[in-house]
Specification:
By secondary structure, the chain is mainly alpha-helical. The protein has one domain. It has 9 helices and no strands. The chain has helices at residues 5-17, 20-28, 35-95, 116-119, 124-154, 156-185, 188-213, 219-248, 251-273. The longest helix is centred in the first third of the chain and has 61 residues, at 35-95. The protein is globular and about 60 Å long. The two termini are 21 Å apart.
C-alpha cells in the first residue's frame, strides 16, 4: 500500500486512464468481444458512480460547506456546484460532437479486422473522424482525471471504487479511438498509440487540477469541488455509460448492471464502516 496519499491518488488516476489500453487491445487484437459482459460492466460502472455521488460525495460536500454557509445555505451552495458540474460536462459534450461509442459489429463480433470488404471502405474522412474522436476523448478525460484524483485523495476507499468505474467507462473509449484510426492508417501501432495518449489525459488533468487548486484549498473549495465532481460523474453515467451499455447489449442488461453496481457499492461502504 502506498503511504503517500497524493502519490496513491495519482496511481489510481493513472490506472483508470490507461484502461483505454484495454479497449484498444480488444479492438485491435481480440477476435471476439463478449458484448453482454461489456454491457453489464458499463451499467455496473454507472451504478457505482451514481450511488457514490448521491450517498457519499454530496453529503461530504455539504459537510465541508456547512462551517462557512451554515446548515441552511450549504445544501443550496452544493446544489449550485452540482449543477455547475452537470452543465460544464453538457457544454463540453456539446462543443465536442465526436464523443460517441463505436459499434463492435464492424470490429470482431461477426467480421474480422482483416475483412477486405471493410478495409475497402477506408478513406481520408475516416482518419479525420478517428483523430477527432481521439481529441474529443482526450479533452473530456481531463475532468474525469480531476474527479478520480480528488476523491481518492480525500477518501481512498471511495476513490478506488470510482477509479474502477472510470476504468470500465474508458474501455469503450479505447475502442472508439482505435477502430477508425486502424482502418484509416492500417497500423495497429498508431491506433494503439493514440489510445495510450487519450488515456494519459486523466493523470494530466489530475496534476493540473491539483497544482491549480492546491494554493486555494480549504473546506469551502473542497466542498464545491466535491459537489461539482458529483455532477460530472452523474452526467457521465447518464449521457455516456448507460447509452453505451444499451448499444453493446440491451436496456435490461444495463439496468441489471446498475443495480449490481449500487448494491456492491452500498455493501462495501457499510462493511468498511463496521
Amino acid at each position: 500500500m502506498i503511504e503517500n496519499p497524493v502519490l496513491f491518488a495519482f496511481v489510481v488516476t493513472v490506472g483508470a486512464g490507461l484502461a483505454t489500453l484495454v479497449g484498444a487491445s480488444l479492438a485491435l487484437f481480440a477476435r471476439h468481444t463478449n458484448r453482454k459482459f461489456l454491457a453489464v460492466s458499463l451499467g455496473f460502472s454507472a451504478g457505482v458512480m451514481i450511488y457514490v455521488s448521491f450517498v457519499e460525495i454530496i453529503p461530504k460536500a455539504i459537510s465541508f460547506l456547512s462551517p462557512e454557509y451554515g446548515e441552511g445555505w450549504s445544501p443550496g451552495v452544493m446544489a449550485i456546484a452540482f449543477l455547475g458540474g452537470l452543465t460544464g460536462m453538457a457544454l463540453l459534450y456539446r462543443l465536442i460532437p465526436n464523443l460517441e461509442h463505436p459499434s463492435l459489429d464492424d470490429a470482431h463480433t461477426s467480421v474480422s479486422l482483416e475483412d477486405p470488404a471493410l478495409v475497402s471502405q477506408m478513406d481520408k474522412s475516416l482518419l479525420r473522424a478517428g483523430i477527432g474522436v481521439a481529441l474529443a476523448i482526450t479533452l473530456h478525460n481531463f475532468p474525469e482525471g480531476m474527479a478520480t484524483f480528488f476523491l481518492t485523495l480525500e477518501d481512498p476507499q471511495v476513490g478506488l471504487a470510482v477509479g474502477a468505474a472510470i476504468a470500465i467507462h474508458n474501455i469503450p473509449e479505447g475502442i472508439a479511438v482505435a477502430i477508425p484510426l486502424y482502418y484509416a492508417t492500417k497500423s495497429r501501432a498508431k491506433a494503439f498509440g493514440f489510445g495510450v495518449l487519450s488515456g494519459l489525459a486523466e493523470p494530466l488533468g489530475a496534476i493540473l487540477g491539483y497544482l491549480v487548486l492546491r494554493p486555494f484549498m480549504n473546506d469551502t473549495i473542497l466542498g464545491i469541488t466535491f459537489a461539482a465532481v458529483a455532477g460530472i460523474m452523474v452526467y457521465i453515467s447518464i449521457d455516456s455509460l448507460l447509452p453505451a451499455a444499451r448499444q453493446y447489449g440491451s436496456g435490461q442488461l444495463a439496468i441489471y448492471g446498475v443495480i449490481a453496481g449500487m448494491a456492491v457499492m452500498a455493501a462495501s461502504l457499510v462493511l468498511f464502516t463496521l
